[in-house]
């Protein structure tokens, strides 16, 4: 049984049942609308810490490439001391 003859007769069963006249589809006067909350907009934005981190990594890579990067042994020792003493994280 062939069922594709419906469209060849100029009869579209779904169009007739929707009540929309041929040629008027999509022009109903109603528009779709999407609203995005302020919280969602904030989540979509890039966090500031990410930009700061990228800048820091870029700066350190430039120092490594140029050979000007210097290790601050005193700062490392102080951080280790604070960590093991329990003051740091």
Automatic annotation (TrEMBL):
GO biological process: bacterial-type flagellum organization; negative regulation of DNA-templated transcription
Signal sequence, start to end: none
Keywords, ordered alphabetically: Bacterial flagellum biogenesis, Repressor, Transcription, Transcription regulation
UniProt key word Ribonucleoprotein: no
Residue ranges occupied by any Anti-sigma-28 factor FlgM C-terminal domain in the UniProt entry: 32-81
InterPro entries: Anti-sigma-28_factor_FlgM_sf, FlgM, FlgM_C
Pfam families (alphabetical): FlgM
Protein origin, superkingdom: Bacteria
Family: Belongs to the FlgM family.
Protein name: Negative regulator of flagellin synthesis
Species of origin: Geobacillus genomosp. 3
